[in-house]
Amino acid sequence: MIIVLKPETAAAMQAKLVAQFGSKTELFTHHNRIAIQGIQPADLPADVVAAADDLITDVPAAVQSSRLLHPENTVIKTPHSVIGGDQFVMMAGPCSVESADHVMAMAKVAKQRGATVVRGGAFKPRTSPYSFQGLGEAGLQALRAAADANDLDMITEVMDDEHVPMVAKYTDIFQIGARNMQNFSLLKAVGRTQIPVALKRGMSATIDDVLNAAEYIAAGGNHQIMLLERGIRTFDHKYTRNTFDLGAVPVLQKLTHYPVIVDPSHAVGEWDLVTPMAMAGVASGASGMIVEIHDRPTEALSDGPQALKPKTYLKMAQQAFQLHDLMTSWN
Amino acid sequence: MIIVLKPETAAAMQAKLVAQFGSKTELFTHHNRIAIQGIQPADLPADVVAAADDLITDVPAAVQSSRLLHPENTVIKTPHSVIGGDQFVMMAGPCSVESADHVMAMAKVAKQRGATVVRGGAFKPRTSPYSFQGLGEAGLQALRAAADANDLDMITEVMDDEHVPMVAKYTDIFQIGARNMQNFSLLKAVGRTQIPVALKRGMSATIDDVLNAAEYIAAGGNHQIMLLERGIRTFDHKYTRNTFDLGAVPVLQKLTHYPVIVDPSHAVGEWDLVTPMAMAGVASGASGMIVEIHDRPTEALSDGPQALKPKTYLKMAQQAFQLHDLMTSWN
Amino acid sequence: MIIVLKPETAAAMQAKLVAQFGSKTELFTHHNRIAIQGIQPADLPADVVAAADDLITDVPAAVQSSRLLHPENTVIKTPHSVIGGDQFVMMAGPCSVESADHVMAMAKVAKQRGATVVRGGAFKPRTSPYSFQGLGEAGLQALRAAADANDLDMITEVMDDEHVPMVAKYTDIFQIGARNMQNFSLLKAVGRTQIPVALKRGMSATIDDVLNAAEYIAAGGNHQIMLLERGIRTFDHKYTRNTFDLGAVPVLQKLTHYPVIVDPSHAVGEWDLVTPMAMAGVASGASGMIVEIHDRPTEALSDGPQALKPKTYLKMAQQAFQLHDLMTSWN
Amino acid sequence: MIIVLKPETAAAMQAKLVAQFGSKTELFTHHNRIAIQGIQPADLPADVVAAADDLITDVPAAVQSSRLLHPENTVIKTPHSVIGGDQFVMMAGPCSVESADHVMAMAKVAKQRGATVVRGGAFKPRTSPYSFQGLGEAGLQALRAAADANDLDMITEVMDDEHVPMVAKYTDIFQIGARNMQNFSLLKAVGRTQIPVALKRGMSATIDDVLNAAEYIAAGGNHQIMLLERGIRTFDHKYTRNTFDLGAVPVLQKLTHYPVIVDPSHAVGEWDLVTPMAMAGVASGASGMIVEIHDRPTEALSDGPQALKPKTYLKMAQQAFQLHDLMTSWN
């Protein structure tokens, strides 16, 4: 349950509850609220009940991720970005880091129209073991250099818990891939760092699954979490790679305080569908977008068909910011 | 296959092909194009081949619905609306026609912010036989009166082929419901009329299923077809009634010439998610929207939870048109 | 709610409840039980409460289909079959009635290994309007003749409410196709007859959807209903046409009293997978099977790839009955 | 492509191809067959073409897992079991190892009716971080002791690559859980061992995804792989936890040489549905079954609702072997 305490005595009551229940169950405090797992109102001391404005008993398992415990938005600050605030954050770059020169060129394109984060994979979770698996640490170094040269933040995927320390040396934001969304060892490992984590929704992850996966990160003490909607697997994948579930954006915003980012590239998998879906993603109210770009998509080492060429990207990004400006005018 | 004929001799060649193959297979002509089912290039007379600019052999079953035969957009003109042109068409009204007075009041609200079509169900396809089944012909009359009093077009669902003549007496646009998308007898029946048809995508209909269903209507001679994306059934329906598949909008626009309309109300099923999804629908490039409104949603005879109250609708509609204006400026 | 009345006073109490509530709501009686829609225990007269063994308030919308009202199995008797009893019922035949001779030959094959029902479509719900649509009434006549010549029952699909009287002249069992599972006009039309109905589960119909669709038939007064599991639409259909949901067999048997029949042919869509799935269907506890056979599958007018050749069918059917015999020995 | 070489010169030709292409691409040999990635028939030396019985160019990415390269069944031998041969293998035990005594008692039950493998989780992938996470190494020790005392093999889940060496000290078979099916780091780690691996199908994994995941293990040199069908995620999960996709059994058997095992417990998630689905699994042709048992399901630390009580398990297992015996008589 969650107890909403009167502000003036909240600290004292929280201390009392921690003293009484802390050795038996999980407790989480946030401002004047406190969540206690497995406790009913009848178990509470009378003075706590008297000091409470509200007792919320219908509480999800992912309690730290819930707005019931943490009503205000989480805003994540990286060197060049504010994620979850009033600004719309653009993240762009190639699917894979293919070479130092290439990612440097793509970062420059990304930067041109307002991106503040450059993306690129150095460790690639490929369906087949015989596909390109990424440049590894050399890829991390190249992406870091490209980010620094263009005053951008860097986001890159970490694929297993053993790699967390190495990736942490370079990146501003960890990305957890869709296939690893319930790799709990990995979630715990990034949860022990203080580096922001972008958690991608799994192909068939329910909203509750996403929130519980985020909770694994939060349970380790890392609350710098953003959620990425990248399309789900449904019965029809003939014309799009996945089904972009934009309804998840306002649903997640209602349930959780973490920023929600959309990934139209993976959602549709075809470059000529990316711009309309990017616009739809902005219009749905997302806090940002991550998009794949490539100057020669047919030669890309991975996911070429969904990459935007620079010219298309630049037009799309301009429209995205115009659309976000219009939406800001509505508030 | 589809033969793209040189314009100057197109008519003559089409006549020749109809004479040669017309008794054996289906032929469809559109401007300088002709589609012939079950025929290979080697079957064609030499002069037809010589008169062709292109021979397209990879042709979908739903050939009349395909842009390969009909490259330009279908634009549907009803008394008060142009659907599929440059304008964004707003269709709004209650889920069910509940009474003459109520639907009159709702039509007035719809009209206030630019709707040109009023919606309302007189025959309701309800999951349970014991739920409200609609007012029947009295509902049609009330909706017609509400449309006329407000200079609006009327759209309403027809549930079976026997009812087509009766509904045709009143409506400007037939709606085929999601559960009837593959009720082929009904599709054939509306295909024999010349009244525009709004075909809702079935809950688990693939893009190809939608196009084949539209083809049943076209095969009867009625080409006034629009397609409604209203959400599909996926693994997660805890927080939304369906999954709004906005990727279907640009996919359908690429494949077919029929206008695509979005239905955010049924897609999400919760009123507080309708506005962001309505905005996403506009941004995806749809030609219009159909949305449910009700002044007292908790008392609605059907689908109350997804109805927008008038005030929310009016704000949403204003934003939708602003967003569409911005998008128009990009072209 | 459902009231389980003490047997000795059940009739009197039911009469009393019908008198009191019959004009306001739906009531359904079955032996010593009575279901009343929209009524709470507090609304009941005291003597009814006193005469009740149980008051069940958590009742599904599809109340007549529920075991809560009708605990014992429904057993359907046709001239040559008992469906839902201890016997396993085999229904076999071609997908479409292609000619009088062909269906006669196939009926003879079906009969050889224990089938008591011959199937065949005279009205075919085809995805494309340009595919073979069936022989119509001539097909019905041919199938009737094939059934009669082999002492078999006949099952055939009825596609719309207008055809119900014509099909009723010939068939022993109506089949409602998957695409029409929620064609409520059709369900009501067969519900007004007393001919047994085999209701196919829709491609994305939930268990509750199936039961509510059955309830439309029951609400009309026809309780001779059997349910057909024929595979559902999921994310993977590369190697099978649908996903055979055999879990639905025991689930439906727990919830409803109607017999459950499996259709392995449509479930997998590939003939070489039909035998293992047919065996799995028997082992799941189904009351019967409907399977497609054809002597020259590559020339079949519909669904050839999933048809068993006679030799394969005969072996499969033999095994099915052996397996059912083994299962009978376990009870 | 795959080259099927005439047996007499196969070894020489394989050596020649390895010498020519081995530094540029992946080659895999199996008896008289050789697979070469990215090579076309035109690239082959003339004497290789002359020495070939067949050139197969339509080859899946997961080539080592394919019957095209490896036509005969893989049979895995563990101390007490032969998996993939003529016998049906029963694996049973509690979901989690809860205590040394408890797992010892459950192993004894499992053994009573023919199980040769005891299951139990020491590291548990739980949706919520606050749920029981398993006993860790102490659990492995307890399960090992229970297996040894009852002359059983042991199967247990390994959740991340760091734990592979520790789990390897105890187990006869690694289990890879559904949520980790595409944890490629983990797949590579178990691929470097020679311990048999039971790979569970992911919740939304296609058949091709399963085969590619298996290929990651094989690519490391470990070919002792079995595949577990445990239900997939679909639109309906009200009455069953997942949808048991038994069609996957014969599909996988057609495509791959690895044994296929069914897991009815996770597939349905409700104990009273486990027996019919277990029977269906045997009838589908699976090589074995893994099933959860518990003497006090309501007190189980995980997945209690799906556990069979000993008495139910014993009856189910007896029926399963009788059914398998009947099926053996058909061959």
From TrEMBL, chains A, B, C, D:
EC category: transferase
Molecular function via GO: 3-deoxy-7-phosphoheptulonate synthase activity
A Pfam family of this chain: DAHP_synth_1
Keyword Transferase in record: yes
Domain DAHP synthetase I/KDSA residues, every copy: 80-324
Keywords of the record: Transferase
The keyword Protein biosynthesis is assigned to this record: no
EC number: 2.5.1.54
InterPro entries, A to Z: Aldolase_TIM, Class-I_DAHP_synthase, DAHP1/KDSA, DAHP_syn_2
Top-rank lineage group of the source organism: Bacteria
NCBIfam families: DAHP_synth_Bsub, PRK08673.1, PRK12595.1
Name of the featured protein: 3-deoxy-7-phosphoheptulonate synthase
Phylogenetic lineage: Bacteria, Bacillati, Bacillota, Bacilli, Lactobacillales
Gene coding for it: aroF
